[in-house]
Amino acid sequence: MSNNKSNPVMSVRLASELDHAFERNGYSAELVKKLSTGDILSKLLPVIQGHADVIMKKHIINCDADPFVPDDWKVEEHTKGGQFEWNTDKVELYRSDEQKKGFINGNELRKLLKDKPVLNANILDYLLAHFELIPEEWKGKAIFFWGTIYRDSDGDLCVRYLYWNDGEWGWSRIWLVYSFDGGDPAVLSRK
Predict the structure, then answer these.
(1) Mean pLDDT of the residues in the chain
(2) What is the total count of domains within the chain?
(3) Which of 67, 90, 99, 103 sits in a 20 to 30 Å window from 47, CA-based?
(4) β-strand pairing of 179-180 with 104-105
């Protein structure tokens, strides 16, 4: 195929096939735009031609580091977790039986999670810096990182969570005196 006006590189049919392939493989419009800028495609050509391999980058998160602490907050408890290699196969979303049936108080849920491999806020902050790693199925949920418990500027205990809103990922917190339902899972490590 040529790259001149009389013989375009891509027919409407091929463009449609490519569009479906992007959608099938989880590409957003933003990622397709990024792929079409610069010289990224020239770097993929040797892979497509069988002359090179793709080596996936490992995302190692230091869960022993001190967590991010918002202004005027304090860390009440921080469960260290060593060097954690992010992989969605290594994590699971957990809901207590009470959450599955209705609600549970945050302080009670904290007690239930005490002996579970909860992930800490270092994971949350890493995911916010690398939002492309966040599983699509987490949208519509508040994903809690119970491995770090804070005391906010009012002196109340709280836990931070990751959420999707208005087309972007963000974080917030909820006080432990509040109730948690089935849409508020804790993220655990599958060891």
Answers:
(1) 92
(2) 2
(3) 90
(4) antiparallel
Domain residue limits at 75? 60-189
> Which uninterrupted H or E stretch holds 47?
helix 40-48
Residue that finishes a domain, picked among 18, 40, 55:
55
| pLDDT score for 7 | 64
Strand ranges inside the chain, DSSP E: 60-62, 74-78, 83-85, 91-94, 104-105, 143-151, 157-165, 168-175, 179-180, 186-189
Given a contact cutoff of 8 angstroms between Cβ atoms, the answer to whether 95 and 146 are in contact is no
Token pair for residue 126? 């890493």
Token duo for residue 45: 């050509």
* Tens digits of residue pLDDT in 147-185: 999 999 999 999 999 999 999 999 999 999 999 999 999
Q: What is the pLDDT of residues 4-59, one digit of tens each?
A: 555 677 888 888 888 888 888 888 888 888 888 878 788 888 888 888 888 878 99
Contact in structure between 181 and 103 (CB atoms under 8 Å): yes
Given a contact cutoff of 8 angstroms between Cβ atoms, the answer to whether 158 and 152 are in contact is: yes
